[in-house]
Design brief:
GO molecular function: FAD diphosphatase activity
Oligomer: single chain
CATH topology of the largest domain: Molybdenum Cofactor Biosythetic Enzyme, Chain A
Helix content: 25-40%
Order of helices and strands: HHHEEEHHEHEHEHHEHEEEHEHEEHHE
Strand order of the largest sheet: 4-3-5-10-9-8
Number of domains: 2
Structural class: alpha+beta
CATH class of the largest domain: Alpha Beta
Protein name: Molybdopterin binding protein
Number of strands: 14
Number of helices: 14
Radius of gyration: 24 Å
CATH architecture of the largest domain: 3-Layer(aba) Sandwich
InterPro entries: FLAD1_M (IPR056596), MoaB/Mog-like_dom_sf (IPR036425), MoaB/Mog_dom (IPR001453)
GO biological process, one term: flavin-containing compound metabolic process
Length: about 325
């Protein structure tokens, strides 16, 4: 009984369907009215600029420990290189209600959302249908994607009699992978993006900012890289300078540098620079970082930081590991 009540409560707590839903960009425009000229500055060809991102990893196999998620780490590096602020990573089950809730919430709160997993041919691949339900959209066979599938994919050797023109269970299963959530009020070319000439798998873009990618790491990485050309014009930094990170290797424990780093963080906050400290368990040296967009200003801080932490600027955390130093702090 308690389980049933919980299910009903969760259903009633879900956000409203698509007609009442707005993306993060639309929400910002409604909450903060601006002049026409300011609105134009905030968009590119009618599309909202991308400042923030979120990642939704979908898959029972990840939660069950069968598969290790590497896609979110790849996305994090991708976003960092473009200057996009990745704000959230979530891993959820192949559960329709959970996918619907997460998709609506992330679409509302972030400019660029990437999902990974759940778009295969089997019964538990429910990402397309769940996200379609989240925004009140139908699933439609996308003809161009289907034609690319027929041209670029080959039937498995275990299916020697497979025929694209003869109805079969295998054909039905394959078609599930090109039955996409499509909104007739938006241009289809903005909703179905082919990022690689040699791949038939498209990136399905829903509600203007949710990008549905496969969970297979090699495909995920290639398709995400292919999206870059579509994203760069919508960045606040369209030249692609992105965010800069400076690493320092220090032999001091975190407790010895904590006071200085606190003062430094307050000093550089207005310049948009963040200061980080990262203990390296079992290693003799810790890492301090400066992260920000103002590379010139960050360079002026290098000598000061090196002196204060009795360390040295490095290109990789393990660059000075061969030098023996006292043990760093251990967590209590």
């Amino acid at each position: 009984m308690f389980s049933r009540i919980s299910q009903v409560a969760r259903h009633l707590a879900r956000p409203l369907p698509n007609y009442a839903h707005i993306s993060a960009g639309a929400a910002n425009r409604r909450q903060s009215p601006v002049s026409s000229s300011m609105s134009l500055m905030a968009t590119t060809h009618g599309k909202q600029l991308i400042h923030t991102a979120a990642c939704l990893i979908i898959g029972d196999e990840v939660l069950g420990g069968k598969t290790v998620d590497t896609n979110s780490a790849y996305l994090a590096k991708f976003c960092f290189s473009l200057g996009i602020n990745l704000r959230r990573i979530e891993v959820i089950a192949d559960d329709e209600d959970e996918i619907i809730e997460a998709a609506r919430r992330m679409s509302k709160n972030y400019d660029f959302v990437v999902t990974s997993g759940g778009i295969g041919p089997t019964h538990d691949d429910i990402t397309y249908q769940s996200i379609a339900k989240a925004f009140g959209l139908p699933l439609k066979l996308h003809d161009a994607a289907y034609e690319r599938m027929k041209r670029l994919s080959k039937p498995h050797k275990s299916q020697p009699d497979f025929d694209w023109n003869v109805p079969s269970a295998a054909l039905t299963a394959k078609k599930r992978m090109v039955e996409l959530p499509l909104d007739d009020s938006r241009p289809y070319e903005d909703q179905v993006i082919f990022t690689q000439e040699e791949l038939w798998v498209p990136v399905s873009c829903v509600n203007g900012n949710i990008h549905i990618l496969p969970g297979v790491p090699s495909l995920f990485q290639r398709m995400l890289d292919g999206l870059k050309v579509h994203l760069v014009p919508r960045l606040s930094d369209p030249e692609g300078k992105g965010v800069h990170r400076i690493l320092f290797s220090t032999p001091l424990p975190e407790s010895a540098v904590a006071e200085y780093l606190t003062h430094l963080a307050a000093k550089v906050k207005e310049q948009g620079i963040s200061v980080g400290s990262y203990p390296r368990w079992g290693k003799s040296r810790n890492t301090v970082t400066l992260v920000g967009r103002d590379a010139d200003y960050m360079e002026t801080l290098v000598l000061e930081v090196e002196e204060a932490v009795q360390g040295r600027r490095v290109s990789a955390e393990d660059e000075m590991d061969s030098e023996t130093e006292p043990d760093a702090d251990k967590p209590s």
